Amino acid sequence: MEREELSWFLAFIVLASITIVLTIYQYFFFPILNQMFLLFIFQIPTILALIAWLIIRLKVYGKRNMP
């Protein structure tokens, strides 16, 4: 993996982990956060990081397969 690709992938992993933990804690233990706050602060950046990583991955894959 290239550096930029790796950094976006790690950002996705970190954001997804935080989102999963907070969502589980929110629904099963104690509602500490407003659901809209959870959506806008954690879930949307997680989706954007995944999309950015996929776009960069496709660019790298395209460069490798060009003759």
Query: What letter string, H or E per element, gives the SSE order?
Result: HH
Number of strands: 0
Number of helices: 2
Domain count: 1
Roughly what is the average pLDDT, rounded to an integer? 78
SS strand fraction: under 5%
**Radius of gyration, in angstroms, nearest whole number:** 15 Å
**Low-pLDDT stretches:** none
The major pleated sheet works out as: none
Specify the overall morphology.
elongated
Q: By helix and strand content, what is the structural category?
A: mainly alpha
Distance between the termini: 20 Å
Could you estimate the helical fraction of the residues in percent? over 70%
What features would you describe in this structure?
- The chain is an all-alpha fold.
- The chain has one domain.
- It is 87% helix and 0% strand.
Structural descriptors:
67 residues; mainly alpha; 2 helices
